[in-house]
Design goal:
This protein is α/β, with parallel strands linked by helices. The chain is elongated.
Length: 646
């Protein structure tokens, strides 16, 4: 039975390989060369560069044809001459010895036909008729004892300028292929654990993933016996699954006990995972366990039965690793995180599958480790959206895709609008209008918040100045702008503010900058100097979301702060079903009292009901902000609100 066939085109042709064939070699028998009046194969005598030797006295003279025929017969390489129909017209002794054919020309021709390929092969016919330069094929055969042997079959066309047929040569390359197999085994297996390595894992994964799946391997010249997974009694499900496992804290083992102990631990982990795979085999198919590198392992499940099988396998792997390991005299405990992906094989590629497995593994680690996590398409879509937004943030600023909405800040004493908070929005061409929560975090990570912050600052100042100019003789409202921590550290915020005020003509007292409590508490050095410089310019500083961070009240007396903005979580507790004097209300009242004694004003966020506003006013809160008065709106709506206010 043939278990592997490859073909190398002649250097002059480059034609595609032929399909695999199979045959068995016959019993080896001595062969007698049939007599011929003239040799069918008439190769030219190779030039040697030497003068012919003089004839030996008394010796019988031999013609050049006799010499060539004798050399052909005694050549150590298996040779045969074929006619245009592919029949053997002459073969040497080595041909019969190698292929085990009988003495008859019919037996010789049958073996030759099996070696050349399927009947009617146009490539073979072209060589036999002299229309093709030649071909080379590799055949895997089994001899009479059932042993696999590899043969290199080559055919050279007949000479165009002389008699004779095509020359067939056969070489036994079994030893070379066996050496190649041993080298491949070393190259495809991890030297520490002896598990399949990353290269073999992805080779096996590619053979079962994608539209063609395992059936597609034959189309690319792969022989059925080399396919993975091997045929089993269970019908194929057409699905595929991967458990991508990473040891938690393995680096600490290497750093503490050394790489020898770390390698012993990896070997022990590999053994336990292999036992898990054997126990999880279904339908005669055992999951492939591989070490992908470092402390990463993977279990590949072809023809999986569904997510339940994969999650059960992942859970079993985690249980198997719970028992401590003995490595080089050390008793070690490790846990692992596992990303699980399972889907139809035709609906994915090897690259896509492993990308999703890697993402899911990251989720498992981010959720605390020591667990498995199943791939979630919706969660992944959100991640992909975040990556798209991250890539488009900076260009979007230049394209003018950001706009500002404004939410009124209302004086609780008389209900008038004393200021507005500028809130940035991203009008994304694909995802629509996005709130700050969708992109500010990423902007802070990659630093684009500095560029965006400059735009917000200048735009808000220009709009506040426009409202001031439009209402001469009336009290001007201030604009409050949020400032990110990176703007304080990574840019010259003082220069940016000064430039914005100068460019727009807005008085400094009409600008308020909001920084979060966590950004301000503990301020020293550069942040403190920045705040002091801004305050000296006349700009007001507000602490946003006060009460949710460090709440280190001692800093309030040292920071140049003008306003405390109470976090909305305090205000939401001011409900109808909560009586006055409850704990949160007492805390808010204490903070308002403290702020007033320090000369600060207090703004309450997220005010949604008239009762909340009334109770906040009763405990002395100065300003309110929330949907009770208005949601964030465009600048034209604020202008209308100011006209109504007079």
């Amino acid at each position: 039975m043939v278990s592997g066939t490859t073909e190398g085109p002649s250097a002059a042709t480059g034609q595609a390989p032929a399909a695999p064939q199979e045959h068995r070699l016959h019993e080896t028998r001595p062969q007698e060369r049939p007599p011929h009046d003239s040799p069918p194969f008439d190769p030219p005598v190779a030039a040697t560069g030497c003068e012919p030797r003089p004839p030996v006295p008394g010796a019988r003279a031999h013609s050049p044809a006799d010499v060539r025929a004798d050399a052909f017969r005694r050549a150590p390489m298996a040779l045969a001459v074929l006619d245009r129909a592919g029949r053997v017209v002459e073969a040497n002794d080595a041909f019969a010895a190698l292929l085990g054919t009988g003495p008859g020309a019919g037996a010789l021709s049958r073996v030759a036909a099996e070696l050349l390929g399927r009947p009617g092969d146009e490539t073979v016919r072209a060589v036999l008729e002299g229309r093709r330069a030649g071909l080379r094929r590799t055949r895997r055969v089994r001899d009479a004892e059932g042993r696999a042997r590899w043969l290199l079959v080559a055919v050279e066309p007949p000479r165009a300028d002389g008699p004779g047929g095509a020359l067939l040569s056969v070489t036994d390359i079994s030893a070379r292929r066996e050496l190649e197999a041993r080298v491949r085994d070393l190259r495809m297996h991890d030297p520490v654990t002896r598990l399949p390595n990353r290269a073999l894992f992805f080779e096996r994964l590619a053979s079962v993933a994608g539209p063609s799946g395992p059936e597609g391997a034959a189309e690319h010249g792969e022989h059925p016996e080399d396919r993975w997974p091997p045929e089993a009694g269970q019908a194929r499900t057409g699905r595929i699954g991967v458990c991508y496992l990473d040891l938690d804290g393995f680096k600490a083992v290497n750093d503490t006990f050394g790489h020898r102990t770390g390698d012993l631990l990896l070997t022990a982990v590999a053994e336990r995972l292999s036992r898990v795979a054997v126990a999880g085999a279904r339908g005669g198919r055992t999951p492939l366990v591989a070490r992908l590198g470092g402390d990463e392992f993977a279990l590949l499940v072809p023809d999986s039965s569904g997510t339940e099988q994969l999650t059960a396998l992942a859970a079993a792997a985690l249980v198997a690793l719970e028992e401590p390991f003995d490595a080089d005299g050390e008793r070690l405990s490790v846990s692992a995180s596992v990303g699980v992906v399972e889907r139809p094989a035709s609906a994915t590629t090897a690259t896509e599958l492993m990308q999703d497995a890697d993402t899911t593994l990251y989720w498992a680690k981010a959720d605390g480790g020591g667990r498995w996590t199943l791939f979630d398409p919706e969660r992944n879509a959100h991640r992909m959206t975040r990556q798209v937004l991250a890539a488009e943030l900076r260009p979007a600023i230049g394209r003018g895709e950001f706009v500002l909405d404004y939410q009124p800040l209302v004086d609780l004493a008389d209900g008038t609008t004393s200021g507005v908070e500028a809130l940035v929005r991203w009008r994304h061409p694909q995802f629509g209008t996005l709130p700050p929560s969708r992109f500010i975090g990423q902007a802070e990570e990659d630093g684009s918040v500095v560029q965006l912050g400059r735009w917000v600052l200048r735009t808000a100042c220009a709009q506040a100045r426009a409202w001031q100019v439009a209402r001469p003789g009336r009290r001007a409202i201030f604009v409050s702008v949020n400032v990110a921590v990176r703007q304080v550290w990574d840019s010259d915020l003082v220069a940016d503010v000064a430039a914005a005020l100068e460019a727009t003509g807005l008085p400094p007292e009409l600008l308020q900058l909001e920084l979060t409590e966590s950004a301000l508490m503990g301020s020293a050095g550069r942040p403190l100097r920045v705040l002091q410089a801004l305050s000296a310019m006349g700009v007001r500083i507000a602490i946003d979301d006060f009460g949710t961070g460090y709440s280190n009240l001692s800093y309030l007396s040292r920071l140049p702060v003008s306003v405390l903005k109470l976090d909305g979580s305090f205000v939401r507790s001011f409900r109808d079903d909560v009586p006055p004097g409850a704990a949160d209300e007492v805390v808010v009242e204490a903070m308002v009292s403290l702020a007033h004694r320090l000369g600060l004003t207090v703004t309450a966020e997220c005010v949604e009901t008239a009762q909340q506003a009334r109770r906040l006013r009763g405990i002395g809160c100065d300003t309110g902000q929330g949907w009770l008065w208005s949601r964030p709106v465009g600048p034209e709506r604020i202008a209308g609100l100011l006209r109504q206010q007079g």
